[in-house]
Amino acid sequence: MQRKGIILAGGSGTRLYPVTLGVSKQLLPLYDKPMIYYPLSVLMLAGIREIAIITTPEDQSQFIRTLGDGSQWGISLTYIEQPKPEGLAQAYLLAEDFLGGAASTMVLGDNIFFGHGLPELLKKAMLQPSGGTVFGYRVADPERYGVVDFDSDGSVRSIIEKPEVPASNFAVTGLYFLDDTAPQRAADLTPSARGELEITSLLESYLHDQTLEVTLMGRGFAWLDTGTHASLLDAGNFVRTLEQRQGLQTGSPDEIAYAQDWISAEQLAQRAAIFAKNDYGRYLEQLLKN
Known about the structure:
This protein is α/β, with parallel strands linked by helices.
C-alpha cells in the first residue's frame, strides 16, 4: 500500500495575533506563495500523491479555495476538520480513516525545509518498511522544541518535549515518517499535563520498541518554522534571498508536479497563464521553454 501524506494546518495561530484573527496561519504569504505551498512541496518531493490537509472547520473553505482538489498538480487532496487542537499526535486519530492502514508522512503546515539532497533524504525515509523516521536539526534554542537525548555512543536515548535544560542542541523537526501503527499508538497515548497528545510521546512509543530512526540533518540544510512574527519574516526573507540570487523557485508545487511528470506541458502552461502578471507565472513559462 502506498504511503500517504498529512499536512497538519489546524490550530488557532494565537502567537501570530492579530495577523491570524481572520486567516489561517498556514495561508499567510511566505514571500511570494502561501505558506502551505512549502510543506506541500516537501510531500510531493517525496513522491506522495494522496494527501490529507487537517484544518479548523472555520478555515477549511479558504484552503479549498487556495488548493482545490490537487488535480492541477496531479495529486489528490482530502480535507479533514480538526474541531479542537489537542496535540500534534491527534492528527493520526483524525486521519485514521483517510490512511486506511497505510504508512504516512506528516509535515507541519508552518515548517519550511530546504537543502541540496533533500529529495534523496526524503526518499530514503520513504523506503523504511516499518517503524518511524524523524529528523534532528541543530538549533540555538532547543528549549522551544522536542529535543533528542543521545547516549554516549550516539544512539538516541529519549526525546523530551520543551525541556528546561536541553540534553542536546538537536530538535526534532516537524516531519514524521511513521508506519501503519501510528493511529493505534496515538489512541493509546495519555494526554500530557497541558491536555495534549504529544508527538514526542508517540515517538517515544516507537523508540521503546527500538523502531525509531533519528536522521540528523547536516549544516547544508535549512529548517525554519514560522510560529512568531519574527520567524515568519525571517523565513520570507530567506526564500526571497534564494529566489533572487538563484533565479529558481522554492516550494513550487507546479514545478515539482511537472518535473515528476504528474502534469503535462499543456497543464503547466494553463497554470502559468493564471499567474501571467507576476514573476511566478513568468518562471513557469520559462520552465516550458527550457
